[in-house]
Amino acid sequence: MINTSLEIFGFRNHEHTRLEWGRSVNLLVGPNGAGKTNILDAIHYLCMSRSFVHPSDMYAIRKGHQGFMIKGRFEGKIRSQFEVGCAYKRGEGKSITVNDSPLERISDLIGMVPVISLAPDDKKLTAGGPVERRTFIDGMISQLSRTYLKDLVEYRRVVRQRNRILAEIKDPQMRAMQLEPWDHKLIETGSGIIKRRAEILERFAGYLADAYQQVASIRQQPSFIYQTIVGSPDELSPDELKEHYRGKLRDMEDREIDREQTLVGPHRDEIVFLLDELEVRKFGSQGQHRVFALALKLAQMDLYTEELEDLPILLLDDVFGDLDPAKTEIFLNVLLGHEAQTFITAANPDLLLEIVPIEGDENRVWQIENGKATLRNSG
Length: 379
Fold this sequence. Notes:
By secondary structure, this protein is an alpha/beta fold.
């Protein structure tokens, strides 16, 4: 997938910015706070309908504006050429259009333009809590499978409804009657999510091992453990997994009533990352956390390359600032070996400009200053 052009209005510190992209590597250079990250975030909105910088759309509105508009043109194998638009206005919310036609559901955008983003905050993948890793896995699989995304959206709705019943209905008989149909939906959707996670993670393990060896200077073996309601969900049939789910719900019934929330299911899963069988979160050095996060995103790119008809777009936001020159060169050369279109921001681009060839029109360098963009090379 290629993003050929981007136009943004009233978005963060950009009043109106239009950019025409190279089909391979695009470097966005300039001082901190110039608006480089905001451009990558705009691309992310067109791929995932949301920011990778801040969870609230309101914070993306430029001061003095009532909303923002983002438009981008794309080329791919499934859709030869198409335009995606994302608009947000205070009091009206967000809308997504494809070729000027509104999408019925914003979630329909997910997977249309596969994207992988890597930013300094991604250290939370290995150093943060379980929710960070679940979010990564769910985002990765949702771009591969619309069925998974549909199940995930439905599962979250079911959990909210069960939590409301657990919190509001105190009569035991009435509560049990109200919970029964929601328990059935919880088990149906939840077991499907667990099964799909296990299947994808089994394949992902091989990609992660290969990616880590490409970027790490020390030979260590990366791995992970998927912790869910059953030890090995891939070894159970769908019916066996559902039965196990029902048993766990029965076992946790009293605690769920006491806590007034759903305590069993994939929303409580954990993925434990390991290096040579030691947990990275507890024992990893700062450098190991950084390299592991890089390897995760490279592995995701390799997985998408094999699974999807269109290559993903890769967004790298200031990821080289805390890497030494040797690792930076290794990582860049790995990226240049892929055909995926890549966007890279850097405050100090000297080393990047030495490695990434900017002759011709495939790779481009944009200078970003105070929310304005100027093309530094033009073929």
